[in-house]
Description:
The protein is mainly α. The protein is 65% helix and 3% strand. It folds into three domains: 88-362, no CATH class; 372-488, no CATH class; 500-619, no CATH class. The radius of gyration is 26 Å and the shape is globular. The chain starts with 17 loop residues before the first helix and ends in a 6-residue tail after the last strand.
Amino acid sequence: MMGASPTADIRQTDPLAPANIILFLALLALMPLMGTLFGYGSQAEQLPIVERLRDPNFLTGDFYVNSAAQFGPRIYYAHVLAWLHDILPLPLITHSLAVLCNFALASVTYYAATRLLYTNALGGLLAAVFVVTNGSFSLGLAGYLRFESFQPANPAIPLALIGMVLLIKLQPFWALGPLILSALAHPLIGMEIALIAYCAIGLSILLRPPEAGVLRSFAPAVVSGFLFAIAMYLVWILPMSGTNAIRMSDTEFFETLAQFRSPHHYLGLSFPQLSWMQALAFVGCAGIVLALHQFRHGFSREVLALSLAALIVLALCAVSLWFVDMMQSRLWVTAQVFRMLMVVKWVGLLAFGWLVADWIDRDRLAGITMAGCLALATADAQPYAIVFALISAGALVLGPRWVSGPVWSVIRWAGLGVLILMSVAAQYRYGLTQQSLRALLALAALALIAAPRPGKPIGAALATLLVAVTLTTTALTREKGLWGLNALQAQLVWADLTGDNFEISRAASELSPPDAIWLVPPDFESFRIISGRAIVVDHTSIPFDDAAMREWRTRMEAVHGPINSGGFTALREMARNYRNGIDWIAVAQRYGADYAVLYAETPWPGAVLFENSSFKAVRLNGPEQ
Length: 625
């Protein structure tokens, strides 16, 4: 009802009891274990740092580990994992922490949806489902709210969002704890979300003064921001002030990190047009829903703050197109502001949770259909489902004004059918099956818990049983995937890392002494942690110290030849050069390499120490050469 107070509390009539809400959030936190990853991607470059902190003699001949184990952006995260690894196995640590972070992310999402957007419990839980199970649009390939393999971003994101919510609720000193912890885990995410949150809350106080008044609300936020800045100076800026003796120019830094290593993260003007369209569709729909919320519930300061946070991120991304792509500013490259699209995504998913719950209240069938489409159309398919859902919602509101009776019933059913078909088509073309299966499990568990029936503990017990059986079954069949589905394959422990690349990595530990240095293909970042042997260089593992970053680029070109392209194109070009063969002996002498992993088809005149269908291990010097 227009003009109704945003604090009109419908939560008291929610059928979901607090215990069931907590139960569902806990079950939801476990669902990403279905198809989870261990030892892949960014985790493969972070785990060797953990091992070095535990054992100073680990991979002393590895250039990357020597640099990354010094004070840098991964160091606090690595120290925590190293301390825990002295007590527990590393896979158990990472999966347990991932579940804990999932629970924190789901909980802060539920809280924000119900206390900032004033949706009911069902809307909050649906928003949590969207956030935990659905990656949504992929513009920039970094603005995700959760990552499959546990890494510094996993704890940093929910902690930063908790801090943001506390700031919006005018609890700036309570917000300091989670914001500082977030920045310790991941300085870029923690600091930037904190900056965005402080700016958004400051503007919201000025534009929509709270009852306590502008000064009494604004001053604590300023003091909190000042204390946060002092903390960042003490834990990051001061310790790093003497670590970068050599400083790259803006141009060299840009060419190395943004242009050569990761243009898919930094160069917005080179992002695929389709990715831009999908992101803009999401943003446009989120804006419409937030405006509708304000129209329905009054001009809320909390929603204003969330909207301002999203607008700040969008403005930063727009400015980044100039300062990164055109001006090649080191400061803006370092900021990687497209990663902050996670804030826009989170605010939008909160709004969609409110919208779907509102429709379930007014038209149960339509609302449930929309909820299913928004949850099950995943990744880059979700923006399409959102557009279709909003069109359907508009048609359901306006249609009865022009058509009534049986004709309208037919049109209504047909419209919902079209919504389902279009969402399925989008999912088939752009979605991720793994995320859809998790969302399906989440919706099934939520239906069992939330369905109105006598004896609700039965529903909760059935939901728990469903999740337990599903996770157990998929864990037991994780090697090939339940029913042969690749989406349900998972890596939970070291032994699950199988394939020719892992086989030859394990063989390397038997073929060479602990101090051996290996040449490997450019995308072989997992080799060092699996084999326990040093490597000359790989594409994924890039140090952030300027001198080391320059050396990394030099090594990449020395091993894989001069490369004129960047990103994934450069990676394919380097792999092709390595496959065709390089001057192995010259590179080995330059970097002290003793052995090499070659592609199986790469010519090699000497003896082969080990071989499988994809790779072979050779010695670059000595009698076996």
